[in-house]
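Supplementary Methods S3. Complex input for the iron/sulfur cluster-bound model.
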Amino acid sequence: MDLVKLDIPAPRYTSYPTVPYWENNLNEDLWKQKVRQASEQYGAEGISLYLHLPYCESLCTYCACNTRITVNHAVEEGYIQSLLKEWDLYLQQFTGKPIIKEIHLGGGTPTFFSPENLHFLLKRILSGATQHEHFDFSFEGHPSNTTHEHLRVLNTLGFKRVSFGVQDFDETVQEAIHRFQSFEEVKNAMDNARELGYRSVNVDLVYGLPFQTEATVKDTIEKVIALKPERIAFYSYAHVPWLKPGQRKYSEKDLPADAVKRSLYNLGKQLFAEAGYEDVGMDHFALPGDDLYEAAKKGNLHRNFMGYTAQHTHLLIALGASSISDTWDAFAQNIKSVEEYQKKVAEGKFPIMKGHALSEEDLLIRAHILDLMCRYQTGWRVEHRWEELYARIAHRLQAFVGKNWIEIRDNSIYIKDQGKPYLRNICLAFDERYWNKIPEKQVFSTTA
Ligand code: SF4
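Predicted complex, serialized as structure tokens:
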């Protein structure tokens, strides 16, 4: 594969190795052991907790998340009981009370759940844990159903950050992706959050959606900028209809061509810069003063299954169907089917579907990819046993040197501004063990 091409399939590297390449070399006993060890080794720094709340009332056709569509809110209580039971399984492995540094509610639509049920769930979790002095709690809110009460209740539990999915305000685009929220709904949700004391609001936007043009994207971005969210995530749409059949509601000819898609990204980047937002890692922009911006400036940015974060923790416990936990030397993903996940938890078993225990080489490459994704640079000390590996990496990197996208000096590489759009490609040069094992079907979006 030609690594310097912009439109090759490549992982977004929220983990290394990426999920399709996991070797499934982890059973329940080994997972328990990994959790115990990580709790002993990293417990004092605090843990991250991700809660996957999979329900949505209607399907947005572009969606690549693991969701369950229903309007039956009776499912809330049973699901919450499963999450708490799973959390109890983890509590049995921890050495002492866990210190929680980060909580993130994702989905699905966390605000599908009533404020009372979210309060019950979180109160139960927090009552058995200690909160880190620099804790950071956040959630994803759908602008159409995040009520003042949701925001208030979560705020009383320490939530100070919220992320609203907007994607695009254009009516034709919204119709195609079957996701509707007006500017007024988004403004109202953001006003409520600010009034209650949320200190950071993120807005998610997507480029490359069906029927988007420079004019529609410009209009959406200008409206969002007028609301001054502290952070904006500007994601590339991943067209994977073989994995997400909902995306068949439109056809490929409705999507902007690659060159147009690139120009949409460049347009966004330019508009964000003009409005004072700075680039903080792939796809993310933040205003000075926001935690993510400060972390990027200090070189403390971190990346995990939740995306970029200002908190660096080694142990991430993820509860709920399809969620992925990380003990730093092992990953485990939960069963995707909600019913099977609940059944397994009810039996008192970890509901793991697949996992991967990292080898020494995996850990080495993981550190480099994390450095590149968060700091646009990485360096190494060549130990004898890794000499050949680094020689091969250096050889592959020459293609990027030739393009003047990176500089290599003293066993370190630095990605130049013009090389930043090729960040995922540059990571591929380090990922020799897995990247060229082509899966049976294409599973990654392209880097364009
Ligand atoms: S985009 Fe969000 S709200 Fe829409 S179906 Fe996916 S998870 Fe649910």
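The two ends are 15 Å apart (CA to CA). The mean pLDDT is 92.
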